Amino acid sequence: MPDIRTSDFGGIPYGNNAGRPVNPGSGKLYSNGETQRIELYTNSGSWENIVQEVPSVSSITGNYSEATNSGTITIYGTNFTSGATAYAIGSNAVQVAATSTTFNSLVQLTATFTGLSSAYEPYDIKVVNPSNLFGILPDALIVNNILTWTTAAGSLGTFDELVSMSVSAVATDPDSTVTYSLASGSSLPSGITLNSSTGLISGTPPDIATDTTYTFTINASDGVNPAVPRTFSITSQPSAPATFDSLVVAGGGGGGGGYYGGGGGAGGLRQLSSISRTSNQILITVGSGGSGGLFGQRGSSGQNSTLALVNGLSYSTTGGGGGAGTQGNSGGFEATSGGSGGGGSLYTTYMSGASGNAGGYSPVEGYAGGTGSGYQSNTNSNGGGAGGGGAGGAGESVVGAVNKAGQGGIGIYSSITGSSVGYAGGGGGGVWQGAQEAGAGAAYGGGRGAVDTNSGGSNAVNGTGGGGGAASGDTGQSGQGKGGNGGSGVIIIAYPNNFRAITTIPGTLTYDQPTRSGYHVYRFTAGTGTITF
Q: Structurally, what CATH architecture does the domain formed by 56-144 represent?
């Protein structure tokens, strides 16, 4: 039998589902203990609940933006009815009704809120049906605050070209994950990138000629509030100047001739006001000086010096020619730049000795060596080597005159090291034994010629000068005299010290650093190797 009962007062029957009256007629009430509700039999022929059920709120999606002071959320749950209203309840217990609540379905509402303050977050979300029955989801909604930049606008620093760098531009948001992007129209220099997750700016700045500042704008976004832009800049500086203020490249000096030989020629010298730099590496090759000759031999020529840039441009000067040896041999020469060696005397024919060959293609780099002279037997003289600034002098010998060897050609001054220094002087000629005066080494670097038993003077001071010619040696022991050695070549680089110093100098190069106010100065005197700025 169905479980059906009637109230003691002849009121509403009650029981379980099976106890509902059959064909009760429209409008009949029934208290259903199984479903715990009062039911009404309707014209549709079914029992309907006439008291609304309690709604429940299970979750929400959407955000509330501090920037716009508004937010639209979707509310999920059960037993929602048309006409339901959503509320946000802050930590101050104040209920703020949604400005609009839209009934989507029994399990979904859409609500828009305004006027919420982050001071009272997190907010509970409450849904109230028209029956005043309600459900609440605690701590469901926060006010998504506008993110805050922690990195100040403006310069992020100065960095060297072609050197790895990194710096960060950071914003914070306690509510959301921040992402970063370049604003429209902004760009970073080539080789530099922005990490969209961390704000790290990193990479290798490009090769540049002068200080360069790059300005750009980064948008930081929390995905809820509008992106917040901030403008920054980084400056890249060349690690070495685009051009050097000055440069000297000089070849090795030639050795003096032996046995009353001629003076050695100066190494060719280039003194440039500036050169363009297109790379941070430069190959340096310093030419060595020539050796003095023995027993009438010609001194050997000095070696070439070269400064070569990685882009293929190079600046070279050749070594000076060796001085002539006995009996009028011609002095050595180099076809392109070094000063030639002086000619030797020709004592057996009472005639002038041969002259040195012409030395270089411009007065800056080399002249002809002087002529060896002879007029009376055993009163003979030898020419001096050519210098960077002038030709070598001819030897002098006439009847009854004092024998004189030719003096070396004059050198050239340079102030690249901060003080005026001479380079590329020719070597003086040697003389026959017993003569009273040997040729002087030229100013600015040439070795002095020898008298009697002395060997020709070597150039040991400033480099690039030619060696002096030798005398004939002790009486009765002809051929013992030795020409002086030529000085080594030299390469000198100077540039303002607001650029960094050279970072790498291989041990194959010999150098020193003369002091010049406001400048880095490097003077290379031997070896070969690639320097790096």
A: Sandwich (2.60)
